[in-house]
Amino acid sequence: MGYLETITDNNWKEFTASPFAVLLVTEKGCTHCKAWKAELSSFLEADSDWERWRFGVVTLDGDGVAEFKEANNPWLEIVEGLPFNAIYVNGAPTTSFYGQGVKRLVNRLGRIEGGSEEAVQA
Fold first, then answer.
1. Do the beta carbons of residue 83 and residue 104 sit within 8 Å?
2. What pLDDT does 51 receive?
3. How does DSSP assign the chain, residue by residue?
4. Is residue 120 part of a domain?
5. Burial class (CB in 10 A: 0-12, 13-18, 19+), 63
6. Which distant-in-sequence residues (6+ apart) come within 8 Å of 64 by Cβ?
7. How many domains does the chain contain in total?
8. 121 falls within a domain
9. How far apart are CA 80 and CA 43, in angstroms?
10. Which of 3, 94, 118, 119 is most buried when burial is the number of CB atoms within 10 A of its CB?
11. pTM, 2 dp
12. 93: burial class by Cβ within 10 Å (0-12, 13-18, 19+)?
């Protein structure tokens, strides 16, 4: 069973360097972010199919994320809405999408594992 890790300046490099990682980007006052975080957390607590993936959440207006925001994360510049999901494979940002929904996420991860999801330029 998986869980949603809290990502800060102390662990973002190690997290994003993982073989398979999903990073949920949020802000404190975002109601859609809170709903997606709760939905994803509940899913991960009961799921055993995606255990090789790491799932994390970074709160952009939270404490301890200045280094993460200032680092070479060029995809942050394209974030126009929240929640935002960045998917890393072998340490590289591979794809991303706005919004929420376990079904959308699982479909995307399945395409990545099946080799049909094209990498985006980051």
1. no
2. 93
3. ---EEEP-TTTHHHHHTSSEEEEEEE-TT-HHHHHHHHHHHHHHHH--TTTTSEEEEEETTSTT-HHHHHSS-GGGGG--SSSEEEEEETTEEEEEEES--HHHHHHHHHHHHTT-SPPPP-
4. no
5. exposed
6. 8, 9, 10
7. 1
8. no
9. 26
10. 94
11. 0.89
12. buried
Q: Does any domain span residue 14?
A: yes
The answer on pLDDT for 121 being more than 70 is no
Distance between CA 95 and CA 52 in Å, rounded?
18
Distance separating alpha carbons of residues 30 and 81, to the nearest angstrom: 10
Mean pLDDT, rounded, for 50-70: 93
Cross-sheet strand order for the sheet of 54-59:
4-6, 54-59, 20-26, 84-89, 92-98
Note whether residue 25 is domain-resident.
Answer: yes
Residue 6 burial (C-beta neighbours within 10 Å; 0-12, 13-18, 19+): middle
